[in-house]
Amino acid sequence: MKEAIHKLHKNRIFSLIFWLILVFVAIIQTPNINTLTENASNITYGSKSQPAKAEAIKNRWGYQLNNTTGVTIVYNNPNGAIKAKQQAQIDETIQKLQKNKSYYSVKKITTTKTDLAGKGQLVSEDKSTELVELDIDPQSNNLTILTNQLVNQAKVNGLKSYVTSPEIVRNTQSQKVAAINDLITIALFIVAVLVVGIYFRSILAAFVSLITLFSSYVVSLGIVTNLTTRLNAPFSVYTPLEIAIATIIMGLIWNIYLFRRIKNTLILQNESAAATRQTIKASRFPITMTGLLLAAAFGILILVNFSPISSLYAVGISFLILMLAVLTINPIFTSALGESVFWPNVKPEKHRQPGVWNRIVSFSLWQPLAGLLMAIYLTFPFIYNFRPSLSYTQLSTLTANDQAVQGAEVLQTHFAEGKATPVTIYLENDKALNKEKYLQQIDALTTKLQSMKGVNSVYSVTQPSGMPISKYYVTNQLGDIQSDVKSAISKLTRVSTGIASNRRNINIEQLKKQVNYLKTLTNKSDKINSKSTDIQKQVSDASNNASVNQQSSANSKVKKYEQKLDKLNSQLDTTSTDMDALINQANNMQMYSQTIYNNMQTYNEALQKVKSDLKSLQLQVKNVQRGLNNVYDYLAALQKSTASDVYYITNAQLEDTDFLQTMYNYTSQNQKITALQVIFNNAPNSSDTPKQVKLLQEQIKTQLQGTTLKNADVAVTGEPVYQALEQSHLQRGFLIMATIMIVAIALAAFILSRAILQPFYWLIALIMSVITGTQLTYLALDYVANVSAFDWQVPILAMVVITAVGAWQIISLGLSMRYTRLNSLDWIRPSMASYGQVLRYILLVVILISLALTYGSSMVMIETAMISGFTFIIYYLILPMIVSSLGKMAVTVPDKTKLLKKHTDDE
């Protein structure tokens, strides 16, 4: 039994079983990579960052809008303004969407009907484009699925419709990256098979190499993805591809290196197991040293507070797994198959001296200064003009075929360029903001931000359309007051004129004459009354006398006059009766005349007082009129001054329906939080965006100082903020990353070579090559494809390739110098000749891998491939020049100095 186990161990069966189990577990335990890639598209910056603070404030908004994201439905009529019929179709479509809000996870819909005051930000100036803002909850459903559903629901005949937002564009980019990662990974494995197959002209060697690389990749990816899901380890959209690149590039270099040594060893050692053990023993140190160095260098990057860089710890893990796979999986097949592993080409490898390489070395050793100048001549112009420019926008890496990208471009065309990527300012106060003293400060902040350079418009609760609402401003209210004052002055003028007229119409002298006339009339009435009494007495006497004469007359005349006397007596009786009535009327008239006289006397006195009061009132009215004229002039001057451009909303206006609707759209449920939206003139870019975001934050802080909102919590978020953070974190993180890589490689080279100058030359040559290769790529793409800036992910991806290949080359040189018995000058020619053979297959690997990276037609990967390819072509050219020329000068110049000094001393 022991013998059988020993035989199995000797034949490395346990290693094979171990790797089979490991690969199987890794495959079944690896989570959904596309989901991880999609989640990684939203880079987090910690709880103290502005987007994190803004998200925390937003989650307290209420109205069931917690954890929602905003998307925009864009309706565009390419033939002109949206017609009434088309508008009706839009309204009908939105009504259907409103009815099915829960199905589409829609929490809020904002249209021109629900935000009348903010219509200006929803309709373009040419009326050809209309927006519908949605707040959706992607937590309840996948954002991609929701977007596709909304695209189908939002369609309107005769109009182009899009569903877009920065989050959707990011999600689209992550999906494209995931698809490209899969394509390029497949292409890389195909290239890996071709490289080994072409180099060794062997099918089996290529197959063995593929097994090693695939096993290492699957296990590395499984470990990294499980660390992400279980421990929340950093993960970026390019992490799977970075693992594939690191595994295949370094795996190919190590496999070719190992197979070459085994093939050479089999010439001297026929027994395959012994040859394998001998080769592994000789190769273990350089492979282990390189693997541990790269693992440590990339592993320490997990401490960098930027997930695209900190996620490179995964590359460090992949180097560790690859190191184990190369040293354990390859021997299983080489010890079992022996020379057959190189079938059908089992002939020994012929060593070919690289002619160009040797001639460069010979020339540089012959004329070291000329060789150095040649290296400088090839690289210095590119180094001198090196101006790295990076793009941080997602639109630069996406094609216009996607509907979200097209929607963003429509927004940029018909609104401002920054419309597709707004900045949102969240402001949270400890008290409700529905008070004039708070709204005034919000309006002042809005106006201040609108005056910033590069700002197109600012929307807020006080200016929902990006323009001041006149009725809420003092200048408009002063105009109303001014009109009222003017009207009052006009009325006072008429009153003053009427008073003067009435005062002139009151004639006291005439009134006195009328009173005297009434007095005379009263006296006459008394006389009439007296005379009437006398007449009555005379009539009575006449009546009595007539009766006596009738009794004493007996003659015939008495009878003749008897009838006339009777008639006269009757008339006198009537007259007496009438006189009684006349006397009564005269008595009444006398009484009324006295009363009238008394009243007129009183009225006369009253009128005299009224006339005096009217004179006083007229003076007072004139004084008031002069005062109101002064007030009118003051208000007119105040209205024209900037002091009147102040927001002031009355209590009645606070209860106005339009304003309540605006409050609903722009403030939280408890009215303690409000949001301001800032639109820049230009789309985000690396040169202006960080400055604009910084200035925006400074302006907010300055404007709120010393106001009623000085203690409010303020946070900004949006695509420009994210891009500014990406830029600042990348600049700082990449500097840390480059420093770590350079220091790690330098330390390894110094320790392994036991030298200082030569490793320094190697490192300088690599740095010069990287800068030259980057500038060459920039110039080539600018000329061919009009690309003026690299995507910001390119330096990270290029660093993975360059560090892996550069570390192996420099460590190989270090080991060559470590084990040589020659002095530093004599070591140059044979080591460079030997290294030229190694560099050929390394260059072959780099070039073919670079071609594989372009398979997905991704500009990011094309830029990465070109930088890597140009870098190592330049490195291939200048390394022998720098090593030979500086190596010889380092030895000969001090010797010449000593000889010159000795000659001087002899003289």
UniProtKB/TrEMBL annotation:
Subcellular location per the Swiss-Prot or TrEMBL entry: Cell membrane
Keywords: Cell membrane, Membrane, Transmembrane, Transmembrane helix
Primary localization class, coarse: membrane
Gene Ontology CC: one annotated term: plasma membrane
Transmembrane segments annotated in the record for this chain: 12-29, 183-200, 207-225, 237-259, 287-306, 312-333, 360-384, 733-753, 760-780, 792-817, 838-855, 861-879
Taxonomy, superkingdom: Bacteria
Feature: compositional bias, Low complexity: 539-556
Ranges for region Disordered: 539-558
Membrane topology: Multi-pass membrane protein
A Pfam family hit: MMPL
Domain Membrane transport protein MMPL span(s) in chain numbering: 70-369, 571-807
Entry similarity comment: Belongs to the resistance-nodulation-cell division (RND) (TC 2.A.6) family. MmpL subfamily.
Protein name (record): Membrane transport protein MMPL domain-containing protein
Organism: Lentilactobacillus senioris DSM 24302 = JCM 17472
